[in-house]
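To the structural biology subgroup,

Please find below the input and predicted structure for Ig-like domain-containing protein, which we are adding to the shared reference set this quarter. The sequence is reproduced verbatim from the submission form. If anyone notices a discrepancy with their own records, reply to this email rather than editing the shared folder directly, so we keep one authoritative version.
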Amino acid sequence: DENQTCICSPVLADEWTADVVKSIDALVGSCVVLPCTVSHPGTYLSTSRLRGIWHRKDKWTEYFYHEDSTKILDSFKDRTKLLGNLGQNNCTLEIVQVKDHDNGPFCFRVELVRKDNNEPTKEKFSFVEKCADIKMIHDVPKPKLGPIKTANPGKPYTLTCSVHHTCPSHRPQIKWSRENKDDEITEVHKPIHSGIWEAESILSFVPEEKDDESELICTATFNGGMKSEEKFTLNVKRIENYNHIIIPAVAVAATAVIFGLFCVLMVKKYNMWSRMSGLSRK
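Predicted structure (tokenized):
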């Protein structure tokens, strides 16, 4: 019996190990990736010598994924595939078009196959102690914007929009409402922790004073077409106009100079008149 072969091989099973994400969120209608790594003792085994299978924990012949698609449960047909390469210890499972009933637990099994006829040998290992559960999410995750700060006209400004997701094979697409050809957009994709990734778009541009109070919108489109957005009102510092201070100050200064010159002329005129008056009395 296939099940007994796996259960009754504790010594061999201990030598084979698998690491599967324990629990993961999945957006209904999108896709989810269940990270999985498998390792074995001895020498390298090519992918052609290995067969990866994902099955129910309590019903090992109910397959979520099998290389023979006719054996896959009808509700999962054409929606699952292995990512990566079993020969490189990658047993990651992808599920697309996630549905509410895609409940597990999802368990991985590896089988060794014969070179001549591709039939499985008696070496089969199911890792039912490490299975993945999926928690269904119906609300589309909202992107996050930052850093929120005031812009200076004529100086470079950077704004980042990021969103977490569970499908690196079909990552969310992030778009900005600005359509300026001089803008620079950098995209970054990175893992956060097991089963969770972050898609990030970095917008760099040089704001002008006319951009003050303009609205920037970041829209994330997930696999399956679902969208969410975040808005931000840009504040641009205004260039101070000091004419209302400078012009009166200049006017006052000019008046003072003119008045000073007038006083000097009056003093000179007075002195000249005094000397002339003195001579006439003599």
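Summary notes: The first strand starts at residue 17 and ends at 20. Residues 1-14, 241-246 have pLDDT under 50 and may be disordered.

Regards,
Lab coordination
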